[in-house]
Amino acid sequence: MKRYDSFVMGHISIDENIYQGETVKEIGGAVFYSSCASHAIGHKIGILTKLLPQDRKYLEAFTVFKKDITALDSRNTTSIRNIYYSADRERRTCTALSIADPFTIADIPNNIDSRIYHFAGLISGEFDSEMIKSLHNKGKIALDVQGFLRTVVENKEMVFIDWEKKKEYLPYIDYLKTDAAEAEIMTGIKDRKKAAEMLFEWGAKEIMITHNKEVLIYNGKKHYTCPLKPRNLSGRTGRGDTCFSAYITERLDKRIEEALLFAAALVSLKMEKPGPFKGDRDKVEDYIKKYY
After folding, report:
1. What is the pLDDT along the chain (292 residues), one digit of tens a residue?
2. Between 3.30.360.10, 3.90.79.10, 3.50.50.60, 3.40.1190.20, what CATH number should domain 2-291 receive?
3. Pfam families in the record, alphabetically (predicted)?
4. b/e 65-99 (16+ beta carbons within 10 angstroms → b)
């Protein structure tokens, strides 16, 4: 039996990032940034992904132990073009160039026992939603709602559309992650604190809403916030994935305040350098002492 703190599921993506006329190809995907971050700070991480057999070379980018990566064959590898319009990379147009095959419960290896099952999706339809209910009986469910809202429309552009069955599945989710825009799409409310309260009322146990200035957590009793303090934004891509994964794995044995501070500091440090977080706990603790 393979035992993990978190088993992260999602499509790896071959990203084509365009900013100020310059195109950079790099490995991306929530599964990539999430797993690398939690692994770097000492958590035991397993991965499930799907890609074309000839693209397996891209798995070398993961920092997680290769024996802990379950990579299944797919008719395509997900590839996304991101055109950024602002220096903070908040405004962008995303186009799906290709999409890997969806995940089903049958894709989960029988020898996996994880404390958290993390749905780290990129595009609506990536997961059979019934996986949420099935895995709920095995461990805590962590879900990034991006993988259930971001939808490919006719011209292959990706737009955010509300999750039709959110009220059916939110009660099965222990840790729910949205950004400010996604929270507004789901609730119709701009105020992040009020949006988090509504998501809690619909059944999610602990809600994270990320914003370019701070991270908010709500557990039904209290709102917790922590600022982000990066010194530059050259590693902005993967911010939310990194923050959420660090938080949920730290949360396994820490109180909300501690886990939130650690995750906010870690992602602030990560945003200063492109690629996944490759530091360690000491670097995060040093960052906290200096800037928090």
Report:
1. 999 999 999 999 998 888 788 888 889 999 999 999 999 999 999 999 999 999 999 999 999 999 999 999 999 999 999 888 876 666 778 899 999 999 999 999 999 999 999 999 999 999 999 999 999 999 999 999 999 999 999 888 899 999 999 999 999 999 999 999 999 999 999 999 999 999 999 999 999 999 989 999 999 999 999 999 999 988 888 899 999 999 999 999 999 999 999 999 999 999 999 899 999 999 999 999 999 9
2. 3.40.1190.20
3. PfkB (PF00294)
4. eeebbbbeebeebbbbbbebeeeebeebebebeeb
